[in-house]
Amino acid sequence: MSRTALRICPLCEATCGLTLTIEGTKVTGARGDREDVFSKGFICPKGASFGAVDGDPDRLRTPLVRRDGELREATWEEAFDAVAAGIRPVVERYGANSVGVVLGNPNVHTMAGALYPAVLIAGLGTRSLFTASTVDQMPKHVSSGLLFGDANAIPVPDLDHTGHLLLIGANPLESNGSLCTAADFPGKLKALKARGGTLTVIDPRRTRTAKLADRHIAIRPGTDALLLAAMTRTLFEEHLVDLGELTPHVEGLDELAGAIADFTPEAVSAACDVDAPVIRALARELAAAPTAAVYGRIGSCTVPHGTLASWLVDVLNILTGNLDRPGGALFPQAATDRTPRPAGPGRGFRLARWHSRVSGHPEAKGELPLSALAEEIDTATAQGEPVRALVAVAANPVLSAPDGDRLDKALGSLDFMVSVDPYLNETSRHADVVLPPPPPSQSPHHDFAFNTLAVRNQVRYSRPAVPLEPGRMAETEILARLTLAATGMHGADPSAVDDLVIGQTLGKAVTEAHSPVHGRDPEELAAQLTGESGPERRLDMMLRLGPYGDGFGARPDGLGLARLLAHPHGIDLGPLRSRLPQPLKTRSGRIELFPRPIADDLPRLREAARQRTDGLVLVGRRHLRSNNSWMHNVPALTGGTNRCTLHIHPEDAERLGVRDGAPVRVKGAGGEVTAPAEVTDGVRRGVVSLPHGWGHDRPGTRLSHAATDPGVNVNQLLDGSLLDPLSGNAVLNGVPVDVAPVAAR
Ligand SMILES: Nc1nc2c(c(=O)[nH]1)N[C@H]1C(S)=C(S)[C@@H](COP(=O)(O)OP(=O)(O)OC[C@H]3O[C@@H](n4cnc5c(=O)[nH]c(N)nc54)[C@H](O)[C@@H]3O)O[C@H]1N2
Ligand SMILES: Nc1nc2c(c(=O)[nH]1)N[C@H]1C(S)=C(S)[C@@H](COP(=O)(O)OP(=O)(O)OC[C@H]3O[C@@H](n4cnc5c(=O)[nH]c(N)nc54)[C@H](O)[C@@H]3O)O[C@H]1N2
Ligand code: SF4
Ligand SMILES: [Mo]
User: Fold this and answer.
1) Which residue's CA is minimally distant from atom 6 of ligand 3?
2) Which residues form a coiled coil (predicted)?
3) What backbone torsions phi and psi does residue 206 show, to the nearest 5 degrees?
4) Residues 551-567 pLDDT 10s
5) Counting ligands in written order, which one lies closest to the CA of residue 53?
């Protein structure tokens, strides 16, 4: 007998609602849930393969603990005993910073990842925090922090209503969108065109997204900040600046105009390899559109001027009056956002409150660059102890971060490492303890992160579609127990972690004048929380305190967990709306258009306008049926065009003697790899492209299908020294490489 259950898909940022078919405890099918308030039935090949991803026989079923050098199956009790015994002595002997924490991307796709790591980090008191954000979107956090005073206030293009979309370094037809949660991104781009809107794509590759565009500009990688600066300059020069409703909320306009005066289209044209009249036309089209949104993603972030490019994206939205207006770029309002406080000056955003020990990299948002993890482990300095113990949650930095070989060695030298990961892979193979979370079908789901980035306000929650298999532990409980074991409370009841957070949150809320629970008794409020588990009670609390919440009775028709559970396809909370000035938390209470750290970084950009590399540079790419490093083990999602090949333009191939299908050697500052060439004019001249997340040929892993076509680790070409200095984000695109055919024997 089969049954169906609803489950939000955790396999990318689009958060589609799925209807799963379940036989016994096995997911045998998945289709789009047509009644889902957000995704309305959309599904992609990954979502359709949910059952295969979920039921991968290589997923670990029990904890592993290293004994006599070998990882062996163990009980949960033995595993947490080993965690406490591994971490506590390191903290006690060498101090909190000697315990590192690495958080990978899937943390934003699980409830556990949203609710527990902050408690773990605070409990440990460590500053050695490294996450996937610094190989991804940290520049956007920094630019938002500087402009708006809140690193998490990220404006999202109003895809359903905009008249003109300028898309920079993003390929949503493969990625399904990022920092812009939208189910059926492809359909939304087609709808934009159908209603007479225009789409411009800036990408060194002619991607599937670029093929949809009215205009595709194949820019030279790494030079977007120059192009955007010249567009900004053009808006000033041609008197196209029109802040509209934003006028009272913006400061620094004149300073900005003066500072970018020398970034003329002519001055940047050669570096970008884009003609000056084209740059002017881009600026004019943006200003002339009835509504427009500029949106930049990976290709604009993982480059040497990532923060400047991210800042300029919003500067252009602001100068054309498109920020915070329907059809432009708006700030979503999620149901679990904090209770909105009254508008007014805030505490502002600060950078560089501390620095990394070895290279002195400044922190950003409390994080150190993932690129610096290897040196923080393998290099002793007088500044303090190296990282000697590591907690890795949903992270595979051996493949995702620069110089995997160095990190691989460094991980091998740790006193202790624990990985919370479903797979024994390139990173977790170094752990002394591996704690495997259950598959997604056995986990609850709510998108704490992506609802704050969604193109429509809505809220959805799925309880586990399948009960926990005997011997399994929910990932929320794993992280709660790990937190207790690592912070000297080993063995305490895991609900203590949830009670602590609930007590602290309610305790603070009752003191805030703007809170709906101001002046009430936190214990009385806590007693009202519903839910079957600690994480559900926390979700209930956040919903009830949130902007749409029932305020614990203050607004009886407001949201809470019970109401959400009564709406299994979700609750629509309406289109994105203008919110300024409320989201601003700058010290001035206004948008600070030309902040100091940005001003100080401009000379470096000016310098870049004069540079031109003539050699080849490398960029990445994504495939619809892949996901970073962890989906190459699912046969249904591999093969065909989803392969680790080097894309190279026919003219470059000809010049270098590279033949289609033949192996080529690619050499970068961090090492070299050999991959088959794929000669294609889908990349521009002077650019080659290799996808990331491959290189599944290391011993001691348990990824049987991935190992049959392992590919190579593109990040081995990097040595970790190239960073965007303001954000600490790794430079992964526009990296110089040498390419040569592998000589036939
Ligand atoms: N060259 C290059 N490098 C890149 C990029 C690029 O474009 N080019 N992209 C970068 C980006 S954007 C990112 S986000 C990073 C990603 O980097 P990482 O976060 O390190 O890598 P992932 O492959 O996303 O997944 C990390 C781990 O999560 C595990 N996992 C999967 N599901 C779960 C779960 O439910 N719970 C737990 N605990 N673990 C789970 C997987 O087995 C895997 O080991 O890579 C970056 N690296
Ligand atoms: N199918 C699939 N979906 C995914 C993922 C996946 O691995 N596979 N990963 C998920 C994650 S973690 C993330 S962060 C998102 C990323 O989402 P996107 O940002 O949409 O990711 P990409 O498809 O890598 O698109 C980046 C584009 O930038 C281009 N580019 C490279 N360098 C430059 C440059 O200097 N300038 C410009 N203008 N463009 C440049 C590349 O050619 C590429 O087409 O995708 C998410 N979704
Ligand atoms: S688009 Fe993303 S969320 Fe939607 S089904 Fe595909 S992988 Fe899942
Ligand atoms: Mo990412």
Assistant:
1) 44
2) none
3) -85, 85
4) 999 999 999 999 999 99
5) 1
527 burial level (CB within 10 Å; 0-12, 13-18, 19+): exposed
Structure tokens, 300: 């604009």
Evaluated on CA atoms 142, 129, 402, 424, the torsion sign reads negative
How far is it, in rounded angstroms, from Cα 80 to Cα 88? 12
Could you say which ligand is closest to the alpha carbon of residue 627? 2
Domain 58-126+369-445+461-492: give its CATH architecture: 3-Layer(aba) Sandwich (3.40)
Torsion of CA 512, 516, 519, 523, to 10 degrees: -110
Whether 670 contacts 716, CB under 8 Å: yes
The ligand 1 site (C-beta within 6 Å) comprises 104-106, 110, 132, 135-136, 298, 393-397, 400, 420-423, 425, 437, 475, 620, 628-630, 692-693, 714-715, 732
Matching CATH number, 138-337+581-605, of 3.20.20.140, 3.40.228.10, 3.40.718.10, 3.40.1010.10: 3.40.228.10
Contact 738, 615 (CB under 8 A): yes
Q: Give the type of residue at 382.
A: A
Report which DSSP code applies to 262.
T
Mean pLDDT within 491-512: 97
The gap from C-alpha 324 to its chain's centroid, in whole angstroms, comes to 23
- Residue 234: strand pairing partners: none
Ligand nearest to the CA of 427: 1
Please report the atom of ligand 3 found closest to the CA of residue 18: 5
User: How far, in Å, CA of 41 to CA of 52, rounded?
Assistant: 20
Give yes or no for residue 178 CB within 6 A of ligand 2: yes
pLDDT-based confidence at residue 472 (cuts at 50, 70, 90): very high
Strand pairing partners for 84?
Answer: none
Residue 437 to residues 279, 411, 419: CA-CA distances in angstroms? 49, 22, 10
With beta carbons less than 8 A apart as the criterion, state whether 529 and 535 touch: no
- 247 burial level (CB within 10 Å; 0-12, 13-18, 19+): exposed
Q: What residue ranges of the chain are covered by domains with CATH 3.30.200.210? A: 2-54
Q: What's the pTM value of the predicted model, to 2 decimals?
A: 0.98
Residues of the chain with CATH 2.40.40.20: 613-741
- Measured distance CA(166)–CA(292) in Å, rounded: 8
Question: What does residue 583 show for φ and ψ, rounded to 5 degrees?
Answer: -70, -15
As assigned by CATH, the class of the 2-54 domain is: alpha beta
Q: Range(s) for CATH 3.40.228.10 in the chain?
A: 138-337+581-605
d(CA 706, CA 72): 22
Pocket perturbation via mutation, ligand 3, pick of 7, 12, 630 by most ligand atoms within 8 A of CB: 12
Our mutation pick for probing the ligand 1 site, out of 56, 396, 621, counting the most ligand atoms within 8 A of Cβ, is 396
| DSSP state, residue 413 | T
The CATH 3.40.50.740 domain(s) of the chain lie at 58-126+369-445+461-492
Residue 719 burial (10 A CB sphere; 0-12, 13-18, 19+): middle
Q: Which CATH number fits domain 613-741: 3.30.70.260, 2.60.40.10, 2.40.40.20, 3.40.50.300?
A: 2.40.40.20
User: Token pair of 228, please?
Assistant: 């955007």
pLDDT digits (tens, 9 = 90+) for 378-436: 999 998 899 999 999 999 999 999 999 999 999 999 999 999 999 999 999 999 999 99
Token look-up 């790591």 returns 117
